[in-house]
Every structure is written in C-alpha cells, then in structure tokens.
Amino acid sequence: MKYAILLSGGMDSVALTYMYKKKLSVAFTVDYGQKSSEKELEVSKKICEKLNIPHEILHIDCSSLGSGEMCNDKISPVSPVPEWWPYRNQLLITLTSMKAISYDIDSLIFGAVKTDNSYIDGTKKFFNIINKLLSIQEGNINVITPAINLTTAELIKKSKIPESLLFWAHSCHISNEPCGVCNGCVKYSEVIEEINKT
C-alpha cells in the first residue's frame, strides 16, 4: 500500500503528516491561488524536510474561480463560512489524485476533522461519495480521512507531534502572516489553548 497526503501546512494536515510519516511515499501541497499560499508552501516544505518525506508542489491558479476570504473576493450568497471556496476539497482531491497516479499511490490522506462539517465538503457523506468516485476510475485511488471523527486538539494529542513542529503550522486564511481574526487564526489559538490545558 502506497500512501500520499494532501499537506496544506495547517494544523490538521501537519499532525497527520507526522502521524503517518513512516508510511508516506509523498506529500502534495497545492498552490491553487489562495492568499496564504506562500506561507503554506514554506511550512509544508519545512515539515517534509524535517520528516524526510518527498514533497511535490502543484501550482494551478484557480483564483478566478474562488470566493470569500481565501481569495480576497466577495463572499458567495450560499457560503456557509467566510472562507468558503466553491468545491475546494473536491478540486484539491482531484488535482492531487491526478498527480498521485504517477507515483502509483493507492491511498490519499486528507486532513478533515470533525469540526469541518460546517460545510458539505467537510462531511463524512462527502468523503464517502468522492472516495467511491475515485476508486471506480483508473488508478483506483482511495481517499481516507483518519481524523474525521476527531477534533483538531484530539488529533494533535493522538499524533504525538512535537510542539516544535506543530508551531510551524500556518492556519490563516487571508494572509502569509497570521491576521489573528479570521476563522483559521481563531481556531489555531483555541486549539493551542486547549492542548496546553491538558
């Protein structure tokens, strides 16, 4: 079984990368036109270098297709949260799987957690459907979400990732430097506070 991970540089994917470091054949990071791409690529590269994991960066500018905070555009009327980008998880899984075939990857790990269910493409139902879709096509890639039943704090504890690596994670949705006010920055602060309590 050959595993790859979609590594965004955020807390969830960084923790999963650490947890699966011995099984990973490659980590993929996608620059799809998001405002924080520069920092996400920097963090992902550092994590892969530290863990000795091959790292592949995909540059595909989809900024003209986005909406909301992540592409500095107006928020769509159907957006469930300010950072929502239409069909983003579907896009990232599709683009990454297209490249994963050249690595003979069997399973693509995606860093979805329990609290991602505020939008449809973060739910178990979505991942079950897209996994079926990919697995019936040439390549037979499976999408797996090992943390779908965990909160981010629970995932971090389970992964046993050292703080020195975790603190590299970049969660800001709107900037290459933490803005401190977007949902990603707020989540980061809340998770750090929660894990420091225990």
Automatic annotation (TrEMBL):
<keyword id="KW-0671">Queuosine biosynthesis</keyword>
<dbReference type="InterPro" id="IPR018317">
    <property type="entry name" value="QueC"/>
</dbReference>
<keyword id="KW-0862">Zinc</keyword>
<comment type="similarity">
    <text>Belongs to the QueC family.</text>
</comment>
<keyword id="KW-0436">Ligase</keyword>
<keyword id="KW-0067">ATP-binding</keyword>
<keyword id="KW-0479">Metal-binding</keyword>
<dbReference type="InterPro" id="IPR014729">
    <property type="entry name" value="Rossmann-like_a/b/a_fold"/>
</dbReference>
<protein>
    <recommendedName>
        <fullName>7-cyano-7-deazaguanine synthase</fullName>
        <ecNumber>6.3.4.20</ecNumber>
    </recommendedName>
</protein>
<comment type="pathway">
    <text>Purine metabolism; 7-cyano-7-deazaguanine biosynthesis.</text>
</comment>
<keyword id="KW-0547">Nucleotide-binding</keyword>
<dbReference type="Pfam" id="PF06508">
    <property type="entry name" value="QueC"/>
</dbReference>
